[in-house]
Design goal:
The chain has 320 residues and is α+β, with helices and mostly antiparallel strands. 43% of the residues lie in helices and 21% in strands. It has two domains: 103 residues; 174 residues, Nuclear Transport Factor 2, Chain: A. Strands 1, 2, 3, 4, 5, 6 and 7 form a seven-stranded antiparallel β-sheet that branches.
Length: 320
């Protein structure tokens, strides 16, 4: 084996070992969920949007699958699930680093044989890895002692008491997460919700993003825009007509500072079908799905938001 080839083997082996050591810290990128359904509720999935501080609360509807609102409880659950369900080395990243070091030793032994040079390189590589782990452990312990305020003995033999905030957090009677202040809305607000519902259906049917932008939050505009773009790329358009609101009841309303929220149960019927762009109604392949003559029913939770004294905007849609 030539000297240049040996050098490249050494470099590649080192990179491979480094990858093993860093593997537990690499984030996994996931693709978005698929979308389905028809009508205005197609704009981004079965349930999407934000409900302020109540986004993650169960409200007798499908949980919001796509939302820009942070969900600390969900994130904590995901981390716990990952810690419990990951592999042994994912649950013990320090052991992964040591394993990488020993693997490096074996790689060097393979490249240089079993002589003194192989032992020297392999042993040195392992010592460097262990030394790095010890250094990181010391830094971690130092930062924890400095930032978390561990109890140490005071001069005179007194000990530092536990902060009240820690005791309160551990107490069983700790206050729950803030979820706004319950309020009521009137008939004028319910009429506004019904008008927005009908206007959103028209804007969706016409694929008019400009009209939709005036009726919903920027987050919802993004979801609808994504779905309209997907339809256009597939050469189809969703048509919704003869919208008839069968039921519209307020299920909850609340305030969060200067923002007012309200969620309403909407049950409606409509002619809902998809057509192929560039075709005439008389063409055999004009209708892609649905029936342009038979109405269908849907039941959804629509959440609206507004600044105090402003206009209501659609902020979330949930399937029931």
């Amino acid at each position: 084996m030539s000297r240049r080839s040996s050098k490249w083997h050494i470099v590649l082996s080192g990179l491979f070992c480094l990858t093993l050591m860093l593997a537990p810290t690499l984030a996994e990128a996931r693709a978005g969920s698929s979308h389905s359904g028809s009508g205005a509720s197609s704009g981004g999935g079965s349930s999407f949007g934000s409900r302020g501080s109540r986004t993650s609360e169960p409200n007798k509807a499908t949980p919001l699958a796509r939302t820009a609102t942070p969900t600390p409880a969900g994130a904590l659950g995901g981390a716990a699930a990952g810690a419990a369900g990951g592999s042994f080395f994912q649950r013990h990243p320090f052991l992964t680093g040591i394993a990488g070091g020993f693997l490096g030793s074996m790689v060097f032994s393979h490249l240089f044989g079993s002589g003194m040079m192989a032992s020297a390189f392999g042993g040195l590589f392992t010592i460097l890895i262990i030394g790095l782990l010890i250094f990181l452990a010391i830094r971690l312990i130092s930062s924890l002692m400095a930032g978390r305020g561990f109890a140490f003995g005071r001069p005179g033999g007194m000990t530092e008491p536990m902060p009240r905030s820690l005791g309160a957090a551990a107490a069983p009677g700790a206050p729950t997460t803030y979820r706004g202040v319950d309020t009521t809305v009137g008939d004028a607000d319910l009429n506004a919700f019904q008008s927005i519902h009908a206007a959103v259906q028209d804007g969706w049917s016409e694929a008019d993003l400009g009209k939709l932008r005036q009726l919903m939050t920027p987050e919802m505009v993004g979801y609808f825009s994504e779905e309209l773009t997907r339809n256009a790329s597939q050469g189809v358009q969703n048509k919704v007509s003869n919208v008839n609101l069968l039921k519209g009841d307020i299920s909850e309303s609340w305030e969060e500072g200067d923002l007012q929220y309200a969620t309403a149960l909407m049950r409606w019927s409509a002619i809902d079908y998809a057509v192929r762009l560039g075709r005439n109604p008389n063409d055999a392949d004009f209708v892609v799905s649905g029936n342009p003559r038979t109405p269908v029913e849907a039941e959804e939770m629509w959440t609206f938001v507004r600044r105090r004294g402003g206009n209501w905007l659609l902020s979330a849609i949930q399937q029931v």
